[in-house]
């Protein structure tokens, strides 16, 4: 199955979940993350500002703030197809951009070098057990991860796991994945 078809199938599957199922999965994902060594050892977190069917990242952002961690969120450069992370101290620093995404306003935020992000939470739609993922189709994260030196984790539901996904030479797997059941070994 092609990436586009797999992405559509999994998005459809996620959109079929009830609010109760979503709340349960998100609560368990957040719990596993917050109780992990990855979380406790990180002083700086990189995470997207979720929207739509994505797992809610606001509890992650807010917990990081409560614990005094630095939070950085990405801004996409659609022309260059690159990500630049910026420190987020308040939701007021966000602006709505293309496709309704919430991204940091560079005029109100300070850029973060990727080596200063201890733990990067990498989004995706479909994953295999080796850590390869199908994202949202722009390749932004694969380009960012090429020389990213620190820990990365993806939070996903077992509904997002696939036995087989197309893997291309430029694809970079995440080194940790966590479902509602816990870490995938």
Quick summary of this structure?
The chain is of the alpha/beta class and 185 residues long.
Structural descriptors:
5 helices, alpha/beta, eight-stranded mixed sheet, two-stranded antiparallel sheet, Rossmann fold
Helix content: 25-40%
- Look at the structure and name the CATH superfamily: NagB/RpiA/CoA transferase-like
Physical arrangement of strands within the biggest beta sheet = 6-3-2-1-7-10-11-12
CA radius of gyration is 16 Å
Number of helices: 5
Q: What share of residues are in beta strands?
A: 15-25%
Tell me the total number of β-strands: 12
Name of the top-level CATH class: Alpha Beta
Q: What is the name of the CATH topology?
A: Rossmann fold
- Please report the distance between the alpha carbons of the first and last residues: 25 Å
**What count of domains describes the coordinates?**
1
Word description of this protein:
The chain is built from five helices and twelve strands. Strand 1 (44-46), helix 4 (58-66) and strand 2 form a beta-alpha-beta unit. The chain has one domain (3-180): Rossmann fold (3-Layer(aba) Sandwich), CATH 3.40.50. It has helices at residues 3-15, 19-34, 37-41, 58-66, 140-145; strands at residues 44-46, 70-77, 82-87, 94-96, 102-104, 111-112, 119-121, 126-127, 133-134, 151-155, 176-179, 182-183. The strands form three sheets. Strands 6-3-2-1-7-10-11-12 form an eight-stranded mixed beta sheet. The protein has a two-stranded antiparallel ribbon with strand order 4-5. Strands 8-9 form a two-stranded antiparallel sheet. The protein is of the alpha/beta class. The mean pLDDT is 94.
């Amino acid at each position: 199955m092609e990436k586009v078809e797999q992405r559509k199938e999994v998005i459809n599957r996620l959109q079929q979940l009830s609010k109760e199922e979503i709340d349960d999965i998100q609560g368990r994902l957040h719990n596993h993350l917050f109780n992990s060594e990855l979380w406790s050892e990180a002083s700086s977190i990189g995470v997207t500002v979720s929207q739509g069917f994505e797992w809610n990242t606001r509890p992650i952002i807010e917990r990081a703030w409560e614990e005094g961690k630095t939070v950085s969120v990405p801004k996409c450069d659609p022309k260059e197809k690159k990500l630049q992370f910026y420190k987020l101290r308040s939701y007021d620093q966000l602006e709505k951009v293309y496709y309704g995404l919430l991204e940091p306003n560079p005029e109100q935020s300070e850029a973060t070098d990727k080596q200063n992000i201890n733990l990067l939470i990498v989004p995706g739609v479909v994953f295999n057990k080796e850590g390869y993922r199908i994202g949202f189709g722009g390749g932004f994260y694969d380009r960012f991860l090429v020389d990213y030196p620190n820990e990365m984790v993806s939070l996903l539901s077992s509904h997002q796991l696939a036995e087989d996904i197309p893997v291309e030479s430029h694809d970079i797997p995440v080194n940790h994945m966590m479902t509602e059941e816990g870490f995938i070994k």
